[in-house]
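Journal club side-thread
Mid-discussion, someone asked how the predicted structure for our own chain would compare to the paper's figures. Pasting it here so we can look after the session.
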Amino acid sequence: MDSSALTYHFNRFRTSANSFLSQYEPLTLLLAPLLSLLLAHVVRSLFRVLHDKGLKATLIGFFMTSIKLIPAVKSRIDAEKRKVVNKLQSDSKSKREGWITELPSTGLGTSVLEKMREEKRNDPIWQGKCSGTVYIGGSESDGHFSLINEACSMFSHTNPLHLDVFQSVARFEAEVVAMTAALLGSKEKCSGGQICGNMTSGGTESILLAVKSSRDYMKYKKGITRPEMIIPESAHSAYDKAAQYFNIKLWRVPVSKFFQADVKAIRRHINKNTILIVGSAPGYPHGIIDPIEELGHLASSCGVCFHVDLCLGGFVLPFARELGYNIPPFDFSVKGVSSISVDVHKYGLAPKGTSVVLYRNHEIRKHQFVAVTEWSGGLYVSPTIAGSRPGGLIAGAWAAMVSLGKEGYVENTKAIMEASKRIQKGIEEIAELFIVGRPDMTIVAFGSDVLDIFEVNDVLSSKGWHLNALQRPNSIHICVTLQHVPIVEDFLRDLKESVKTVKENPGPISGGLAPIYGAAGKIPDRGMVQELLVDFMDGTC
């Protein structure tokens, strides 16, 4: 076909198209602005994703989403993901064989207790070999367990939701909160006894409540309706949970070269929508205290809330300071600190399921409460996420604190701080390992530049140890408790042997965490790693 013929056919097409469009000119005029708005929305969404996730993560996410549209590629990815999930779930599925799935037709009566004892005997031996997990230990541990168990049993029927009925439990909660506040700055630095709080089910609930209260308080004070919070990447995952639950934009910023919160990096992210910044004393991964004073000054100068996570340190740091350890300011004595979370069921040696959330004043705490006025069931107000709460646990926490007293906590702190320093020194003497940062408390994290540290962890697991695997950098840590005080040398001996085993026989340990953490570290698409975790949890719950 020559050029004149092409011109002829093109002109005919253009004439036909113009004729068609002229018949629908009103529709064209209507769609034009709509298409323009749609395009603007797409562009804004793209820039928002780039702003939130960064260019690299956005491009990786776009690429992975695109290739998953290819059926063959999606099938291959799903198959490989299923292999990993099946590996993670295999042990759990085998253990479920013979589990009770419906009520027995005839109850077992008191013989059920023997069945429970049998199940308990089948649990792994944890005494002394778990990182954290069980904080009670030492020669008097049996007596302390008996004491808190009896306290819990005595009040197992109670529920502090009914304040008028269970007045004893209401008093126990108020006194646990007051005693905890007195440890963390209320007596010396905060006038008027304004510090207040409540007991919760654990550190996660304490953090969730502090975030929720900060969000609503900042909405009340500043009218912020698109809230954002800023945390260092070492901060606990409970903040991610809070961000999802309460629709808050979360900025997780890298830590400094000392593995502390980077104050300058946090400052760069503060804007008109910021409601909260976060510090830890210490951080869970490496046992390092963030620069709380600097963060407090930043929060105060910018008019935002500042939460300090003292879940691990609340019942250690005040006593470590008295013992002469160099502990920087970390509590309400720091200007700018608006809330604190502290677990009583860790170094407070209370029964599991007890924590405290504290606020600098009642004005902030009021935003923690939920009050309902239009329910046909009556007027309702609740201070925490849970409505009904186990009064037995509150009583157990009160019993633990009052029975130990300040003298007991000082003695315990002396023992665990000395044990953690001995462990740190022993690890430093192993040439293949390095300590992550400079631990301030009772957590010692360590990695290796020459060995796969997760393989070392797997060998330790085969010897009965249960440590915690970390990332960025790849490392593991031990959270030292009273359980470890008498067996420090046993741990160091097993650690040296495990390093030697991996050095002589490198390679993944069958059934361990090394292949899983190794794979997760190599997958660039973090969304895929997230899917793996969710699929694993879905299959084990």
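Post-session note: The first strand starts at residue 196 and ends at 200.
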